[in-house]
């Protein structure tokens, strides 16, 4: 069955008004999409943040007249519609279509992220099973990719690793699969800790090898390797704490940093670490170094 899809370019302030209006005129679903590939990291709990430029997509049953929908929307909202587009789209297996967009991804020389419905391209490589599209980090964003490539290039044998802001657990699990003897994960979001736990189980990681904590419950530790893929602001403000979590001679990798924020973040760690050249990918950077 074909569907009528109406796309509306809105601001976050308009979201609730137009969502209610679309449902009022008979939309069977309403979806918000990023119009500019602008990431949102670490939203506040119980919030649904939107992008500064958002597309609202509404689906209507086939046979619905677009002009009638649009005119009713204007009547309900009392103002001319923002930029919009209506089209008829054919029905399809949406789950299958979504899955077809994701394939195994290689990071560095040894590490692959493999969706559950794909066979590993290199069965003898280090294969981390993770389904792209899950929340909290899947390797598709440059910040995660930068950290995964860094981990792949490290000798992690017998190392203790701390993943600060672990999200999906992707970095800690990768470290364990790459040879670390233990990884600790911490995150402010209990849902992230649950996602990390589930993904560890999917990769046959024993619970005792990957303990998970809320930040206030994190034990006093110093790790051989600390990774933190969060945001530039917290990385700067938490620099004393994060630095103290790294053993003397230990290694640190930071990401979630826009290119223009790199120097500020690096400066916050320069007194305690011998820093590597800043790594850049698609406008995002990774800062790494060894503690003196």
Number of strands: 15
As residue ranges, the low-confidence spans are: 36-49
Query: What integer is the average pLDDT?
Result: 87
Classification by helices and strands:
alpha/beta
Order of helices and strands: EHEEHEHEEEHEHEHEEHHEHEEE
The end-to-end distance, rounded to whole angstroms, is: 64 Å
Helix content percent band: 25-40%
Number of discrete domains:
2
Fourth-level CATH superfamily of the largest domain? Vaccinia Virus protein VP39
CATH topology of the largest domain: Rossmann fold
Name of the CATH architecture of the largest domain: 3-Layer(aba) Sandwich
Radius of gyration: 22 Å
Percentage of residues in strands: 25-35%
Outline the biggest β-sheet.
8 strands, mixed
Number of helices: 9
- Shape category: elongated
CATH class of the largest domain: Alpha Beta
Protein name: Ribosomal protein L11 methyltransferase
Family: Belongs to the methyltransferase superfamily. PrmA family.
EC number: 2.1.1.-
Catalytic activity: L-lysyl-[protein] + 3 S-adenosyl-L-methionine = N(6),N(6),N(6)-trimethyl-L-lysyl-[protein] + 3 S-adenosyl-L-homocysteine + 3 H(+)
């Amino acid at each position: 069955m074909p569907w009528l899809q109406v796309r509306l370019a809105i601001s976050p302030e308009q979201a609730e008004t137009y969502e209610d209006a679309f449902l009022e005129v008979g939309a069977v679903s309403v979806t918000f999409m990023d119009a500019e590939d602008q990431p949102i990291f670490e939203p506040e709990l119980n919030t649904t943040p939107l992008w500064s430029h958002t597309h609202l997509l509404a689906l209507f049953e086939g046979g619905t007249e677009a002009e009638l929908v649009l005119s009713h929307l204007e009547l309900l909202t009392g103002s001319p519609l923002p930029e919009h587009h209506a089209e008829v789209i054919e029905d399809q297996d949406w789950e299958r279509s979504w899955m077809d967009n994701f394939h195994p991804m290689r990071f560095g020389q040894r590490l692959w992220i493999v969706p559950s419905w794909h066979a590993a391209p290199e069965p003898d490589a280090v294969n981390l099973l993770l389904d792209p599209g899950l929340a909290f980090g899947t390797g598709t964003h440059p910040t995660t990719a930068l950290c995964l490539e860094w981990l792949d290039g490290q000798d992690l044998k017998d190392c203790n690793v701390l993943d600060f802001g672990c999200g999906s657990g992707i970095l800690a699990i990768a470290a364990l699969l790459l040879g670390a003897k233990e990884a600790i994960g911490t995150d402010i979001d209990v849902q992230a800790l649950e996602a990390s736990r589930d993904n560890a189980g999917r990769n046959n990681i024993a619970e005792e090898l990957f303990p998970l904590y809320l930040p206030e419950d994190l034990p006093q530790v110093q790790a051989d390797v600390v990774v933190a893929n969060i945001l530039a602001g917290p990385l700067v403000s938490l620099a004393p704490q994060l630095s103290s979590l790294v053993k003397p001679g230990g290694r640190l990798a930071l990401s979630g940093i826009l290119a223009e924020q790199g120097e500020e973040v690096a400066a916050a760690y320069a007194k305690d670490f011998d820093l590597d050249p800043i790594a850049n990918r698609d406008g995002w950077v990774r800062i790494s170094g060894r503690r003196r």
